[in-house]
Each structure stands twice: as C-alpha cells, then as structure tokens.
C-alpha cells in the first residue's frame, strides 16, 4: 500500500454506534486536512477498509457485530502505519489492558474533550 502523499489529506475512519459521538468527531475533523469516512457498523467499516486504507482510526470499543479491538486489527492489516485510537467508557482498570493490545496506539476515555480529538489528529498529521 503506498504511503499517503506529503501534504495530502489524512485519511480518517470514525466508527461508533452512537451517532452523537460519531458525528462530533466527523464535525471536528471536516475540512481540507482530513478526508473523513464514518460508519455506525464495524462490519461495514471493515468492508470499506478492504479497498480504502486509512491513516487514523477512531473506534468505539463495544459495538454490535465486532469489537473495536477486532476492527483495530483490520485497520492495521490495511495500513500497518495507521494510528488506532480506541474510544471507550470502560473503567480505568481496563484501559491499561487496551493500551497493551497489539493494534491500539491510544485510548480516549468517554466522555472525552474536543481538544483530545484535535490533539490526536494533529499529531497524526505530523507522524
């Protein structure tokens, strides 16, 4: 898979079965710096990844049909350099386990702040 050309839009995937969370992240990142695709279904997102690799993924942890960790593996399979962020409302003791998961680069605890999303996206642009 070819790398993203320098100065091109960062390819972002947002997958969350909660419309409010999904739409908030999409709204924050819409613009020339980010090409954002969003899905409520992790199954549909996995199909999309087969032909559309991404550079950054925000994934809910618990979704019907497939967990965020399972989808994270598919993100990394499509682009091993992709940055995967799990968004979760899980208790803090489970966060350490998720952070050590093979395909997860960062964990954002719900409810997260707008600045958290923007910082992750900005750091991914410079990586």
Outline the structure in words.
The structure is a single chain. With 127 residues, this protein is α/β, with parallel strands linked by helices. It has a single domain, classed as 3-Layer(aba) Sandwich (Rossmann fold). Helix content is 40%, strand content 21%. It has five helices and five strands, in the order E-H-E-H-E-H-E-H-E-H. The chain has helices at 19-29, 42-49, 68-78, 92-99, 114-126, and strands spanning 10-15, 34-39, 56-60, 83-88, 106-109. Strands 2-1-3-4-5 form a five-stranded parallel sheet, sandwiched between helices. Helix 1 links the parallel strand 1 and strand 2. The longest helix has 13 residues, at 114-126. The chain is globular. The relative contact order is 0.18. The model has no long low-confidence stretch (mean pLDDT 89).
């Amino acid at each position: 898979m070819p790398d993203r050309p320098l100065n091109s839009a960062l390819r972002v995937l947002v997958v969350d079965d909660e419309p409010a969370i999904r739409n908030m992240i999409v709204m924050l990142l819409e613009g020339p710096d980010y090409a954002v695709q969003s899905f409520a279904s992790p199954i549909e997102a996995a199909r999309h990844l087969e032909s559309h690799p991404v550079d950054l993924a925000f994934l809910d942890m618990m979704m019907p049909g497939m967990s965020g960790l399972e989808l994270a593996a598919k993100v990394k399979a499509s682009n091993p350099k992709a940055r995967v962020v799990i968004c979760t409302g899980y208790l803090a003791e489970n966060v350490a386990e998720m952070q050590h998961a093979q395909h997860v680069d960062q964990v954002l605890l719900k409810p997260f702040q707008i600045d958290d999303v923007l910082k992750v996206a900005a750091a991914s642009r410079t990586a």
